[in-house]
Amino acid sequence: MATTEIRPGPVPLGAFPHFASSDLDEARSFVARTFCDHSLGQTRADERLDACHNHVRGQTLSLNYIRYGADVSIEPGELGSFYLIQIPIRGEATIRHGGQNLEATPRRASLLNADRHTAMRWHSGCEKILIQIDKAALTGLVETLSGHALAGSVLFDPELDFTRPGMGLWGRRVRALFQAADRGEAFTGPGDPWQRMREEELMGALLALQPSNVRHLIDTPGDRLHPRHVKRALAYMRANLDQPLSLGDIAASAGVTGRTLQLAFRDAFAMTPLQVLRRERLKQVRSALLTRPPETPIADIATRWGFSHMGRFSDLYRREYGCLPSETRPLDRA
To answer: Of 135, 207, 230, 333, which is least surrounded by CB within 10 A?
Structure first.
């Protein structure tokens, strides 16, 4: 075993050492225990490996610091059960994720989706802080915020651009969270009553800021102020979007008359219940288009969500999202 002492220095999460090693196989094995199985290789034989991994786990995510020192290639394939945010704090990395090529720097980081293939090259001197997010927890948060049961996985744009004002602030929040963990003010164990709130706030802000196939589903805070029968009607709609619902069906689910529901929806949305239903179905269409494989016809997606007249569907979609369905580029394609 080539395990060595972790070098002193102000590296993130210094109080939470996982391993340090100059042995390639040992480094791969330790990192795999935290994340997933992967291939790891040195691209230059003349460099000395100086691998280090610091790690602390919360309830639904973990914080990590990793360096290899040398130039290495890493191929985990699909991550499966988690998303992985990688933010270089020194150096750069080249990443192939799904159909996109990324150059990761301290100003432009990467967000690896759970079900897209990934291959990376960390260049010499690259050091990163990483956030591992449980897929089931993120999916549950989206469904809670949106009121929609997701038909597929959450898919993010894999490039995190910290030059955007909102994402720049989010990046500073991430660094503050790492610093709080270093000071013993966060990630202190299962007895911390504030830990789940910190994690949900971080994930919620990411969902609100980063382009994804679900960002348009997230409700605004005002949605929580609607009358109870409007909330019941919305919940019923969203649970049955693939069914041929009538106004009578929706009103019965809410326990009111059709006339009462019409007036309530006019006050809440300036729309009829069936117009709101159509908007909710368009949201599902957009989510599907943002993850559409090249071989899937747009008409098949539209028909699944109740749109049988393609010309009318295209016009409705354009009015809602400002572009035609055919102009909606999947997030994981260059």
So the answer is: 333
Q: Give me Rg for the CA atoms of the chain.
A: 23
AA letter at 128: K
pLDDT at 154: 96
Which has the closest alpha carbon to 66: 94, 39, 100, 91?
Answer: 91
Q: What is the pLDDT of residues 97-108, one digit of tens each?
A: 998 999 999 999
d(CA 332, CA 321): 19
CB contact burial 12-42 (16+ within 10 A = b; e otherwise): bbeebebbbbeebebbbebbeebbbebebeb
Residue 116: what are its φ and ψ, rounded to 5°?
A: -125, 140
Write out pLDDT tens, residues 229-277: 999 999 999 999 999 999 999 999 999 999 999 999 999 999 999 999 9
Note the Cα 162 to chain centre separation in Å. Answer: 16
State how far the Cα of 16 lies from the Cα of 44, in Å rounded to an integer: 30
Model's pTM, two decimal places? 0.85
Structural domains in the chain, sorted by start:
17-215 (2.60.120.10), 219-327 (1.10.10.60)
- Distance between CA atoms of 74 and 42, rounded to whole angstroms? 9
What's the pLDDT tens digit per position in 218-237? 855 545 578 999 999 999 99
d(CA 158, CA 136) in angstroms, rounded, equals 19
Alpha-carbon torsion 176, 199, 84, 181, what sign? positive
Contact 117, 99 (CB under 8 A): no
Cα 79 to Cα 37: distance, rounded to the nearest angstrom: 9
Phi, psi of 288 (to 5 degrees): -70, -40
